[in-house]
Design brief:
This protein is α/β, with parallel strands linked by helices. 61% of the residues lie in helices and 9% in strands. Helix 3 packs antiparallel against helix 17. The longest helix is centred in the middle third of the chain and has 53 residues, at 318-370.
C-alpha cells in the first residue's frame, strides 16, 4: 500500500516541478523543509519591526476591543435574561457579576423591567457610538472593514490582500482602528513591492535572460501580499488570541470557578485541531506554490503574446496563441482547485472540532443550569468565554497550516530578492573618463556554458569612432555590453584609464556611458521626457537640438501635441524609424563620455543617416563613439573597424586598410553585402 501511495504521488510532484520550471527556470527548488519555513517566518517578522508604532497602535485597539467585548458587553445579556425576562431581584444577583459591574447593578436595583431595559438601551447606544457594539447583542459585535469584489483565484484576491484592513469594532474607535490597520497593510505591501521591483532591475542581464517577465510581475504584485496575511496571523492574530484567552480564563476563574470542566474542554481544542490539520501543512504549502507557479506562467503567456502581437498576427498565430493561453489558464484554474480542496479539507476539520466543542459545552452547561448551579443568564455569559477560549485554541492548531499558503508566496518573494544582483555601488568611483577602453584577452561565457567571446584584444580612445562589424551572432553586442559592464568578462581584463572595471562602482561607470539599444525602448511619457530621460535637467532648446541631429524634430512638431505628445498611446502610430530617432536623440543628449549605438541607422533613410553620421563625427571630438552596424555607409568613415566572427576579432583597421587585404574577411563581408543589394 505504501509503495502504491508513493507511486500515485509521483506524477503530481513531477507536474508541479514542470510548473516551477515554466514559471521561472531560476526557481525550481521550491519544496522547502521546516527549517527553511522557519527562516521565512523570522525574515517576515523583521519587516514588521519597521512599523513598530503602527503595530503597537493596532495592538492597543485590539486590547480595547477585547477588554470591552469580554468584560463589558457580555454582562448586559445576563441582566436582561435574569432580571428582566425572569424577573429575579437585582439585589440577589449582584454577587454573580464582576466587582467593577456592581455600581451599575446597585444603580439599577429597585427599578422595574421597563426602566432597566431603558438604561440597558441607553448603554447600548453609547457603546454603538464609541465601540460599534450593542449590549443587547450580547456576544454579537459590529466590525469596520472594506473590500473589493473578487474572484476565487490568488491574482484577483490580491488587491484586497494588499489593502487588507479591518477592526473588530465599529463606531468611532472602529473607524480609527480600521484606518491604522489600512495604512499598516498598505505601507508593508508598498515596501515589499518597491524593494522587489528595484531588486529585479538590479539583476545582471545574464540572470534576467532566464527570468520570465510575467513571473517577475506576478511576484511583485501578487506574492508580496502574503506579508499582510502573515502580519495578521503572526502578530495581530497571535496577540489577539492570547489576550482573549487570558481575559476569558481570568473571567471564568473569578466568576465561574466552579465549572473547571468548561475551561478544560475549551483548551482541549488546541491539541485536537493540531492533530487533525497538521498533516496537511506541507501539502498546503506545495499546493499553494503550484497554484502560484501556474498563475505566474499564465501572466507570462499574456505578456509574451502582447509583446509579440505583430508576429502573431502576421504569421497567422492567433489560434495557436489562443490555445497556448487556454492551456495555461486551464492549468492555473486546475491548480487553484487543488489548493482550494486542501483549504476546504482543513477548514472542514477545524469546523468539525468547533462543532464537537459546542455539543460538549451544551451538555455541560445545560446540566449546570438545570441543577441550579448557574442561572439562564450565566449560560450566555459562559458561552462567550467558552467560545473565545475554544475557537482561539482551535485556531492556533489550524493557524500553522493556513500560514503555509502565505509562506509559499513569501518564499517566492525572498528567493528573487536573494538572487545575486549587480553591486552597482560597490567599488571605486570612476573618475571622468579621458582615456579610452582597453580589453586584454577578454572572454565571456554565459552561465549555461555558451561561449560568446574569446581572446578579445582591442583599444578604443576618446575622440575616435570605433565600429564593431560582423555577421549576425558574431558577438558584437556582447562585446559592446562589456563597456558599461552589462556583461562582466569571465576571462581577461576590461579597463578604462588603467582601472579594471571589476573594481569600479557600476553606477559611476554608467553615468558616463550612453547606450542606444538596437530594440528601441521608449517610456509612456511625453516625447520631451523620453528624450531627456538620461538628463532630466536639460532645457527645451537642448532637447530640440539633439532631435534635429537625430532627424526627429520635424516629425515631432507635426504630431498633435508636439514634444508633449504622450507615447503611451501613440507609439504604435510611430514608425520604427521615428522611434529610433527619438532613442538616438536621447542618447545624444546625455552628457556621456562614451556613446554606444547598436544599429543606429537600420531604420533611417539615407539623408537622415548621412546627417547623423556627420553629427557623430562632431560628437567624437570629445568622447568615444562605438557603433554596431551592418550598413557600409555608417561604418566606412570610422577611425577603426573591428571585424568579428564567431566571438573573435578577425581583423582590425580602417575601412581602406581592411579592404586592401587580399581575401580579407571584412572585404568578403562588404563584397557580399554589396552583391546582396
Amino acid at each position: 500500500m505504501a509503495s502504491e501511495s508513493r507511486a500515485s504521488k509521483t506524477p503530481l510532484r513531477e507536474e508541479e516541478s514542470e510548473l516551477d520550471r515554466l514559471a521561472s527556470p531560476l526557481d525550481v527548488h521550491t519544496d522547502i523543509a521546516f527549517r527553511e519555513t522557519l527562516r521565512v517566518f523570522l525574515r517576515v517578522i523583521t519587516y514588521f519591526g519597521l512599523f513598530k508604532a503602527r503595530i503597537v497602535a493596532k495592538l492597543v485597539f485590539i486590547s480595547l476591543e477585547l477588554a470591552f467585548r469580554l468584560m463589558i458587553v457580555v454582562w448586559p445579556a445576563k441582566i436582561v435574561v435574569d432580571h428582566v425576562i425572569l424577573g429575579q431581584p437585582i439585589a440577589e444577583g449582584i454577587a454573580g457579576f464582576p466587582a467593577y459591574f456592581a455600581p451599575f447593578m446597585r444603580f439599577l436595583d429597585g427599578m422595574g423591567p421597563l426602566e432597566i431595559m431603558l438604561w440597558i438601551t441607553l448603554l447600548g447606544v453609547l457603546m454603538v457610538i464609541v465601540f460599534g457594539s450593542s449590549a443587547s447583542g450580547g456576544w454579537a459585535r459590529s466590525r469596520a472593514g472594506a473590500s473589493l469584489a473578487q474572484g476565487h483565484d490568488i491574482a484577483t484576491q490580491t488587491e484586497n490582500e494588499a489593502n487588507r484592513a479591518g477592526s473588530q469594532m465599529g463606531g468611532i474607535l472602529g473607524l480609527i482602528d480600521f484606518r491604522v490597520h489600512l495604512r499598516l497593510s498598505q505601507s508593508l505591501n508598498h515596501l515589499l513591492r518597491t524593494q522587489l521591483a528595484g531588486r529585479i532591475k538590479e539583476l545582471p542581464m545574464t540572470t534576467l535572460d532566464d527570468q520570465r517577465i510575467g513571473d517577475s510581475v506576478y511576484r511583485v504584485l501578487y506574492d508580496t501580499t502574503s506579508a499582510s496575511l502573515l502580519l495578521e496571523g503572526l502578530t495581530l492574530g497571535l496577540y489577539s488570541g492570547i489576550l482573549g484567552v487570558v481575559i476569558s480564563l481570568y473571567m471564568m476563574v473569578t466568576n465561574y470557578g466552579n465549572a473547571p470542566e468548561v475551561i478544560v474542554v475549551g483548551l482541549s481544542a488546541f491539541p485536537i485541531t493540531l492533530l487533525l490539520v497538521l498533516p496537511l501543512a506541507r501539502v498546503a504549502r506545495r499546493r499553494s506554490q503550484a497554484s502560484r507557479a501556474a498563475g505566474s506562467s499564465t501572466t507570462s503567456n499574456i505578456e509574451e503574446g502582447m509583446s509579440n502581437v505583430l508576429a502573431v498576427q502576421s504569421l497567422g498565430g492567433n489560434k495557436r496563441e489562443g490555445r497556448r493561453f487556454s492551456q495555461a489558464s486551464r492549468e492555473s484554474f486546475k491548480r487553484f482547485r487543488t489548493e482550494s480542496f486542501v483549504i476546504l479539507s482543513y477548514n472542514q476539520l477545524y469546523s468539525l472540532s468547533l462543532m464537537l466543542g459546542q455539543v460538549v459545552f451544551f451538555i455541560l452547561m445545560a446540566g449546570r443550569v438545570i441543577d441550579g448551579t448557574f442561572t439562564a443568564g450565566d449560560y450566555f455569559v459562559v458561552l462567550v468565554y467558552f467560545f473565545q477560549i475554544y475557537a482561539t485554541a482551535g485556531a492556533w492548531g489550524h493557524m500553522y497550516t493556513e500560514w503555509q499558503r502565505n509562506i509559499a508566496g513569501m518564499r517566492r518573494v525572498f528567493f528573487l530578492m536573494d538572487v545575486q544582483a549587480e553591486k552597482t555601488r560597490d567599488g571605486v568611483e570612476m573618475p571622468r573618463i579621458s582615456d579610452g577602453i582597453v580589453m586584454d584577452n577578454v572572454g565571456f561565457a554565459y552561465p549555461d556554458g555558451r561561449r560568446a567571446l574569446r581572446n578579445i584584444n582591442l583599444e578604443a580612445q576618446t575622440g575616435e569612432i570605433v565600429a564593431f562589424v560582423g555577421p549576425t551572432g558574431a558577438g558584437k553586442t556582447s562585446l559592446a555590453y562589456m563597456v558599461p559592464a552589462f556583461l562582466k568578462a569571465t576571462e581577461g581584463t576590461v579597463s578604462i584609464g588603467g582601472i579594471d572595471l571589476r573594481d569600479v562602482s557600476v553606477d559611476s561607470l554608467r553615468d558616463q556611458v550612453s547606450y542606444v539599444f538596437q530594440e528601441t525602448q521608449l517610456f509612456s511619457d511625453s516625447i520631451l521626457d523620453n528624450i531627456r530621460y538620461g538628463k532630466q535637467d536639460a532645457s527645451r532648446e537642448e532637447v530640440e537640438q539633439v532631435a534635429r541631429i537625430a532627424g526627429a524634430h520635424e516629425f515631432i512638431l507635426a504630431l498633435p501635441d508636439g514634444y508633449e505628445t504622450a507615447l503611451g498611446t501613440v507609439t504604435s502610430k510611430l514608425s520604427v524609424g521615428q522611434k529610433q530617432r527619438i532613442a538616438i536623440a536621447r542618447g545624444l543628449l546625455r552628457d556621456a563620455r562614451i556613446l554606444i549605438l547598436d544599429e543606429p541607422t537600420s531604420a533611417l533613410d539615407p539623408e537622415t543617416e548621412a546627417y547623423l553620421v556627420d553629427a557623430l563625427h562632431e560628437a567624437a571630438k570629445d568622447k568615444l563613439v562605438i557603433i554596431i552596424a551592418h550598413r557600409l555607409s555608417t561604418i566606412a568613415n570610422a577611425d577603426r573597424i573591428y571585424f568579428l566572427r564567431e566571438g573573435e576579432i578577425k581583423e582590425v583597421g580602417s575601412h581602406e586598410e581592411l579592404m586592401a587585404i587580399p581575401d580579407g574577411q571584412y572585404r568578403d563581408y562588404v563584397t557580399l553585402q554589396a552583391g546582396a543589394r
